[in-house]
């Protein structure tokens, strides 16, 4: 078994000197000719700003972690451009070229770090994790996920085969992180989840694969309740990779699970997820085998999230609030999966 080096993966654990808003303002003006103000967003591994231009336009300026590979950023930019070409109504950000026509470029920041910068259009609306949704709106989320899948069916890039800790086709490579779980009961849960995944790994290895977003979380979906399309933006392609279609769907379903499953146990953990899945299936098909494995892959993402965040918070305690923002809810979700047999979980989403 190969082991993912989480500490070197895509800047996930690489320390760097962060950029402040004043420097971002100067950068946007110097590189893109956009003058305005900057608001910094909380992020995992880079510096991201909303640039509010003096002429009323708004943009997102992303300044990569110095350790991020140019091929990976070119891969993400290429995906967004490809989706725009294949299905222009899918609301992904539009990448803005600099004065020389480049969609991303190196700069040296004020701390002397060599970093890649890119500018994108800003998605107007409310992040889905800051608002609610009704069944029809959740169907709209599923429809967009399916349309993105089809838009990316023929996309190829040299960076698509990277190995990401968040991609649960590699979950067993995270086994060494169990040693860092201090709570005995939590470690027992995670070991049990790992063991269940291991029994299914041969089936998972045979699933259909292509380049996919791989992080359809509520924080990456921007919405507007007053518009019929509901979804107004899909952001953050940082975890995009060639992975299983079923994994992409399972990640979207994870983010529809109840956050209080331990305090308020439910019989159907996927009650909201079924709405998203119904929308997805109205656009794209899934095989019976994929539908059987998706609930297990959802559980796998819960396990991966716990392992990665518990490890990362020890490396970066100053960023604990952001890192651990979704971890606590996972223990109740794991309770639900592990209290049922493999066969019972497999049948959860079957018609």
Describe the structure.
This protein has helices spanning 21-32, 70-86, 135-151, 184-204, 245-254, 271-281, 288-315, 320-323, 329-338, 342-346, and strands at residues 36-41, 47-53, 58-63, 95-96, 105-108, 114-121, 126-127, 209-212, 221-223, 231-234, 241-244. It contains ten helices and eleven strands. The chain folds into two domains: 20-122, Phosphorylase Kinase, domain 1, CATH 3.30.200.20; 127-346, Aminoglycoside 3'-phosphotransferase, Chain: A, domain 2 (Alpha-Beta Complex), CATH 3.90.1200.10. The longest helix is centred in the last third of the chain and has 28 residues, at 288-315. With 351 residues, it is α+β, with helices and mostly antiparallel strands.
Condensed summary:
The chain is α+β, with helices and mostly antiparallel strands and 351 residues long.
* Strand runs, count: 11
- From N to C, what is the helix and strand string? HEEEHEEEEHHEEEEHHHHHH
Q: What does the radius of gyration come to?
A: 20 Å
CATH architecture of the largest domain: Alpha-Beta Complex
The number of helical runs is: 10
CATH class of the largest domain: Alpha Beta
Q: Count up the domains.
A: 2
Unreliable residue stretches: 7-11
CATH topology of the largest domain: Aminoglycoside 3'-phosphotransferase, Chain: A, domain 2
Strand content: 5-15%
Largest sheet: 6 strands, antiparallel
Form type: globular
Proportion in helices: 25-40%
CATH superfamily of the largest domain: Aminoglycoside phosphotransferase (APH), C-terminal lobe
User: Please, what is the average pLDDT?
Assistant: 94
EC number: 2.7.1.81
Subcellular location: Cytoplasm
InterPro entries: Aminoglycoside_PTrfase, Kinase-like_dom_sf, Pseudomonas-type_ThrB, Tyr_kinase_AS
Enzyme class: transferase
């Amino acid at each position: 078994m190969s082991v993912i080096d989480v500490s070197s993966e895509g800047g996930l654990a690489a320390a760097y000197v962060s950029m402040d808003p004043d420097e971002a303002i100067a950068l946007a003006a110097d590189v893109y000719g956009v003058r305005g103000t900057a608001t910094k967003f909380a992020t995992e591994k880079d510096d991201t700003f909303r640039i509010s231009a003096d002429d009323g336009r708004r943009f997102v300026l992303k300044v990569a972690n110095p350790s991020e590979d140019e091929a990976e950023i070119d891969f993400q930019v290429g995906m967004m451009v490809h989706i725009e070409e294949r299905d222009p109504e899918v609301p992904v950000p539009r990448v803005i070229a600099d004065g020389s026509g480049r969609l991303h470029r190196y700069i040296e920041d004020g701390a002397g770090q060599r970093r890649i910068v890119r500018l994108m259009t800003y998605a107007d609306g409310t992040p889905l994790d800051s608002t609610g949704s009704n069944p029809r709106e959740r169907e709209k989320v599923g429809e967009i996920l399916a349309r993105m899948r089809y838009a990316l069916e023929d996309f190829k890039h040299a960076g698509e085969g990277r190995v990401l800790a968040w991609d649960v086709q590699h979950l067993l490579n995270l086994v060494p992180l169990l040693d860092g779980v201090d709570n005995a009961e939590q470690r027992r849960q995670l070991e049990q989840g790992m063991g269940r995944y291991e029994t299914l790994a041969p089936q998972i290895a045979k699933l259909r694969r292509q380049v996919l977003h791989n992080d359809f979380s509520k924080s990456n979906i921007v919405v507007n309740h007053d518009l019929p399309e509901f979804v107004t933006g899909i952001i953050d392609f940082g975890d995009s990779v060639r992975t299983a279609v079923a994994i992409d769907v399972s990640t979207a379903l994870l983010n529809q699970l109840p956050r209080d499953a331990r305090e308020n146990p439910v019989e159907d953990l996927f009650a909201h997820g079924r709405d998203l899945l119904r929308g997805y299936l109205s656009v794209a098909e899934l095989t019976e085998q994929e539908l059987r494995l998706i609930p297990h892959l959802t559980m796998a993402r819960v396990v991966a999230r716990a392992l990665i965040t518990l490890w990362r918070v020890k490396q970066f305690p100053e960023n604990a609030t952001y890192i651990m923002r979704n971890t606590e809810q996972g223990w109740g979700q794991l309770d639900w999966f592990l209290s049922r047999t493999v066969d019972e979980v497999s049948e959860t989403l079957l018609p």
